[in-house]
Amino acid sequence: NKYTVGDYLAERLAQIGIRHHFVVPGDYNLILLDKLAACPQLKEVGCANELNCSMAAEGYARANGASVCVVTFSVGAISAFNGTGSAFAENLPLILVSGSPNTNDAGQNHILHHTLGNRDYTYQYEMAKKVTCCAVAIPRAEEAPRLIDRALRHALLARKPAYIEIPTNLAGAACVRPGPISAVIEPVSSDKGALEAAAKCAADYLTGKLKPVILVGPKLRRAGAEKELIQLAEAMGCAVAVQPAAKGMFPEDHPQFTGIFWGQVSTDAADSIVHWADALICVGTVFNDYSTVGWTAMPDIPLMSADMDHVTFPGAHFSRVRLSEFLGHLAQQVVFNNSTMIEYRRLRPDVFPTRKAARDEILTRKEVSRQVQEMLGANSSLFVETGDSWFNGIQLRLPPGAQFEIEMQWGHIGWSIPAAFGYAMHYPERHTIVMVGDGSFQVTAQEVSQMVRFKMPITIILINNRGYTIEVEIHDGTYNKIKNWNYALLMQAFNSTDGHGKGLLANTAGELEDALRVAGENKDGPTLIECTIDQDDCSRELITWGHYVASANARPPKHHQD
Ligand SMILES: Cc1ncc(Cn2nnc(CCOP(=O)(O)OP(=O)(O)O)c2C)c(N)n1
Ligand SMILES: [Mg+2]
Asked: What is the pLDDT of residues 137-164, one digit of tens each?
């Protein structure tokens, strides 16, 4: 039987390390799905809708490195643009593949289903260009190898999503077999001259500085530079603070870890040591309105910033310097200076264990956090959802080996459920835990049924505070109220006759303890624990942060100020 465009795509996806493809079928992609299903190295993972499918692929890419989401034209792809946007914002090479109309329809005055009904079929490709680093639409089978290879290579090099559009009558069209995969995956190493010059500039930048601190940002992991960061940190001996979106990218049991730097809602006095510094080495950092608490926590000293493929200093810029190579090179030549660790040991706040609530006490946010903390171990992967779960999660201490996932740049409520599902598809042996609010849960709850289907022992800590509390703290209104569900009962619906999911309700500290024990023993499916807490029981950090974010949002338009 002939080798086709669909076979080519399947083989290339497998060659870049993908082992699962997330799909929602539609008549524009069915032949393509047959080809992907015929590939022995790919396992088809169906999702309940294309938003969740794209978010599952986003979560899979966090674990696997790259991922693919295969949808039908327009009605599928436009929903999948949301998870693609998340992958763009979070620097993940998600490949969005969409079926599209038969190549004989263009120009024939044909109105087609799933389109806008105006005979134009190019709008999706135009939209895809905006949310990816490379978008290709295959016009004929002969172009498939060149265009597929280009899209995959761009995504892998940039750590950004790419888009591949395949007409329904091309997926099964004859195609040549792929050439060496090195043409797609060979990385681009640093320019030697730029690397040397950047390292020299770093030495000059640090000369004469008495109090250097390293600040770690979320691009560090995406650049594959976590090991080299530890080398640099240990070569310097300085304090290492971590941005909230980078939590877990520097080991929290490391003696030089000085907490999460998040302005006034920092942990462990990380803001004190960052503000004490006279030199800030920013590594993969992202200073956005949320991570700077409405711009109130922008560092105010000249800083050097090592990004994924360039380094900047006050007065200098070096392109084509790969982060991992730069940090490794710097570690070899940097001068030891642990003044900020010495100071940090003087100012580090004492840590007191949170009081353990008595079994019959009604459940509070603090008790939920205390019990989640107790549950975390080397095999835990904790997903924290947009909402007060961000603040509760950021405050937790990660034991050695524990992983942490957050989506602070895109911030799509509901991301955590499908993303944890996708992540667990790559890491079935890890204990994936989700901290999610009631509002967020309602957005993508369907994907819990996929966790039941694939028998995933995921623990969902659903914090039910009766509404959109993070929004309340930014700016309240009637719109922050939602219809309450019987969340625990939902699992029975998702189980139907063949599921092993468990749905539990915890109103007291003791009930949560018992529910977590049940969750730990449930290996055949997810355990959803609805934790009811008071509507106003939210973290002080959320209240502070919400206040400053609201004032940043309220800045008057420029022309009003003159
Ligand atoms: C797709 C999407 N739509 C709307 C928003 C705005 N938003 N951000 N957080 C929320 C509410 C989150 O409520 P919950 O999940 O209950 O979290 P809590 O803060 O713990 O109550 C909204 C509605 C958003 N972040 N993402
Ligand atoms: Mg809520």
From this structure: 999 999 999 999 999 999 999 999 999 9
